[in-house]
Amino acid sequence: MRITNSIMTNNTKTNINLNKVEADRLNTMVASGQKITRPSDDPVIAIRALRLNSSMSTLNQYYEKNIPDASAWYKTTETALTQTDTVITKIREQLTTGASDENTAEDRTNILEELKSLRDQIYASGNADYAGRTVFTGYRTGEMLTFLEKETKQYRIYEPMTQEAAEKFTYVSGIQEINKDTLSGYVETDVDKHELYRVKLAYDKVDVLDEAGNPTSVYLRVSPNDGPYDTPAITASVVSIDGLTQAQLDELYTGLDASGNPSATYTKPVVVAETGELLLDETDYNTLKASNGFTAEYFKSEWVRNDLRPEHYFMCDSAGIEYNYNRIDPTTKEPVESGGDITGFKNQKISYEVAFNQTIEINTNAGDVYKHGIGRDVDELVALTKKVTDADDKIRKVKEMMESYADDTPEYQQCQRMLDAANKERDLLKDDMQKAFAGAITKFSKYQEDLNDVISHVGSMRKRLEITENRVQEQRQNFKELSDQNINIDLTESAIDLTSAKTALEAAQLAAGKISQQSLLNYI
Q: Going by DSSP bridges, is the β-strand pair 234-239/270-272 parallel, antiparallel, or unpaired?
């Protein structure tokens, strides 16, 4: 075969070019530190790199954003719960003090003021927020747990209760006001004690009129038929006690008129609008006690500072807007936003994805901690304490009146009868107050136990999150090593290969130079 100068030149150029391509490839690898510059260089490495990078991006999202955000949420929640635990401990201390028989009127006044302050402080802790999001309000993280100022907005509330909500309580009737300058016919036999039945609603100051201006009623639906549109088992009218005399108030509570006969004006069940007490007769009380629970439906419009917002606790509606209604399609049984069957309260759980196929619930529901009963129990203690304080003041007034009369005068004897009545009133009320304080100690111990259970749960979830964080950190490290092994070069080995390629290129160029100096004439 004849080899021409053209063939030699072309072959030389091809060899030089091949060596340059290899040298360029190795030079690019050393400069970039990676095995490939485009997917076509090695499709297997390219597809593996894409998958590893996707996993790394997801792990970085978990480790750098989701987990820290969840951890901060838990920390904010735990701080608020710990503060609440401290406040409840202080309330229990005041309750223990208030249950003592040695308290003076001034002591009781101080206890009353302290309890009011601590009550507001508890619910204020429930407004804790993280990065502008309240932590105890479910999905409505842009709203406070409580009303921050006085507001008028009517809600129709469906409040679920257990049978324990039906309770017995003591009512003292026949109490009279005493003017220290005027004798009255107040005698010991006027004062009497009654054991009555009631259900305390979550709120006081419930509406007497609905949105249309019609008289309202409170409906109790016994479980399991406790949906908002089922036929109620008990219907109670709502009555305001504003402007009622003591005799009328006694008739409302006891159900008896001045002659001791059943009242023709007030028939139980009836709701006292101002106190939120649903007064029952014995038959209705036994019905509720024998039930598996029940739901109370009622209206409330007037809200004051530190009232708990009902949309965070109950299934309710206002101005056509429904809150927490869990509805399902009757055919498909799938959740629907409107229409369908109402199956009860819609829980609002906020979950974060903190690892591959692992989510963690981060929020604590307000109803598990900041219960309406805390405020209602404190309010009742405050009211009972005030009644005892008023009775002490009444005794003081009568004693001052007695100083104006001689011991053997009819006026003095009348004052003595008034004093006996006032002492009986004070003794009955004081006995109720001390029993209420003692009972409240038990109730608040249960509130604190429930709170400590929630604190323990949050602590365990934080610990679980820390374990997850460590595992994700290890996964990030492992994936980073795999990614580096897949795409990154061995710099030392590649540098040696590059040097060899440069040597080969230089040799090819040197050979080409020597060959190109010769021509066909040199051989002739």
A: parallel
Query: In this predicted structure, what is the pLDDT of residue 485?
Result: 74
Instruction: Report how far apart, in Å, the C-alpha atoms of 341 and of each of 148, 220, 331, 334 are.
Output: 35, 20, 10, 10
Other beta carbons less than 10 A from residue 56's beta carbon: 16
Q: 336-366 as b/e, with b when 16 or more CB fall inside 10 Å? A: eeeebebebbbeeebebebbeeeebebbbbb
Report CA-CA distances (Å) from 155 to 159, 165, 345, 356, 510: 12, 22, 16, 42, 95
Q: What is the DSSP secondary structure assignment for residue 215, as one 8-state letter?
A: B
Mean pLDDT over each residue of the chain, to the nearest integer: 86
DSSP 249-301: HHHHHHSB-TTSSBPSS--SSEEETTTTEEEE-HHHHHHHHTSS-EEEEEEEE
Cα(37)–Cα(398) distance, integer angstroms: 102
* Consecutive H or E run containing 103: none
Q: How far is residue 176's CA from residue 265's CA, in Å, rounded to a whole number? A: 21
CA angle 256, 261, 262 (to 5 degrees): 60
Judge whether 312 and 137 are in contact, CB under 8 Å.
yes
DSSP 228: T
Q: Which residues of the chain have pLDDT under 70?
A: 1-5, 22, 24-26, 28-37, 40-41, 224-230, 484, 486-491, 493-495, 497-498, 501, 505-506, 508, 513-524
Q: What pLDDT, on a 0 to 100 scale, did the predictor assign at position 519?
A: 58
The CB density around residue 159, as the number of other CB atoms within 10 Å, is 22
Q: Give the whole-angstrom CA distance, residue 131 versus residue 423.
A: 57
What local confidence, expressed as pLDDT, does residue 341 receive?
76
Match 């100051």 to its residue by tokens: 205
8 Å CB contact between 21 and 498: no
H-only helix segments in 2-104: 5-32, 43-61, 67-98
Helices (H) and strands (E) in the chain, counts: 9, 17
Prior bond to 228 cis, omega within 30? no
Strands 234-239 and 351-355 turn out to be unpaired
Strands 133-134 and 294-303: what pairing? unpaired
The pLDDT assigned to 497 comes to 65
pLDDT for res 113: 85
The angle that helices 410-487 and 67-98 make with each other, rounded to 10 degrees, is 160
Q: How far apart are CA 255 and CA 262, in angstroms?
A: 6
* H helix runs in 340-409, sequence order: 372-402
Three-state SS string over 145-189 comes to CECCCCEEEEEEEEEEECHHHEEEEEEEECCCCCCCCCCCCCCHH
Q: HSE, CB side, 13 Å, CA atoms: give it for residue 346.
A: 19
485: tokens are: 């092994």
φ and ψ of 360, to 5 deg: -140, 135
